[in-house]
Amino acid sequence: RSVSDAFGEHLRHLGLQDFPCGLGSWNKSCSDARTSRRLGLDPAGQEDTLPLDEESPEVLLELLRDQHSPWALPPGCSPQDQHLREMAVLAPELVRGSNIFQVLRSLRIVGKGVEEVDDGLLKFQQLEELILSVNQLSRITSANLPRPLKVLELCCNAVADLQDLCAQPPPDLQHLGLGYNRLCSPLQDNCLTADCWPNLVSLDLSFNNLTDLLGLVSQLSSLQKLRVLVLQGNPLALIPTYRGFLVDSLPKLSILDDILIGPDERHQFHGLAKQPELVRSEARVVVSIGEIKGVPEPGAQQQLEVGSEVPVVTYSYCVTYEF
């Protein structure tokens, strides 16, 4: 299933051509426009008398905005959806046919089972934000992404390879979200460098399977505009020197894993980037168990007298952690 298919289905669900939206006879603004064109009149000079089957734009908008209205959008819909429906009342010509591709600056297709980024996206010539989270994308063909794109969010997909995405990426992209995917180390050469992403400000690689901290830093260090980086949830984040090494290796970074990098922290880790031997392929895990119920406490056994023939019962426990 492609992005274009999901978008077409989404438009039908919004009902942009059905009451109270669209160019129907119920829309006074549309009726006035048609009358004005036919008679050569100024709509402002006409009497404000509505036929019985017409409603003013204000009344139609109220039907869309009132949460108790049968035409209200269900909870969870995006502001983009509400904006399109209101536009379908005030200027329905703009959302008819191919005109809608010239209007949208943000497109949100979430949880729709999308498997392909097709070339139909190139019709969105003004698109600046594309959110395709919680789908089934494994590869993204960058040649099919609109050139004006500034935000690309691909969280919770199945992306394991960045080669196609980095082939012809949008040149002005500022945020790339790849959290909760299947990226592994080592990444392809130059896939996260300034050659591909010269204007990248924010990068989310959280909760993948990245293990090569040195290799990743060697690529990210070329991103001169990078200010926000999220790597938490990867195995490399368990390395004891992980945060300090990143803070010192990327001096222009402002936020790492949603935590602001202050002057004190930068001073504390100064010089760590020149000691890559400290970045060892090992992890440190601290586990704290607050309370256990339903098993006897080993230390509570009674001390038996020397020579006692009473049977002794011992307990032993094995705790397993799976990574």
Automatic annotation (TrEMBL):
Transmembrane annotation, as ranges: none
One Gene Ontology CC term in the entry: cytoplasm
InterPro entries: Leu-rich_rpt (IPR001611), LRR_dom_sf (IPR032675)
Domain of life: Eukaryota
Keywords of this entry: Leucine-rich repeat, Repeat
PANTHER family linked: LEUCINE-RICH REPEAT-CONTAINING PROTEIN 51, NISCHARIN RELATED
Protein name as annotated: LRC43 protein
Organism for this UniProt entry: Brachypteracias leptosomus
Top-level taxonomy: Eukaryota, Metazoa, Chordata, Craniata, Vertebrata
Name of the encoding gene: Lrrc43
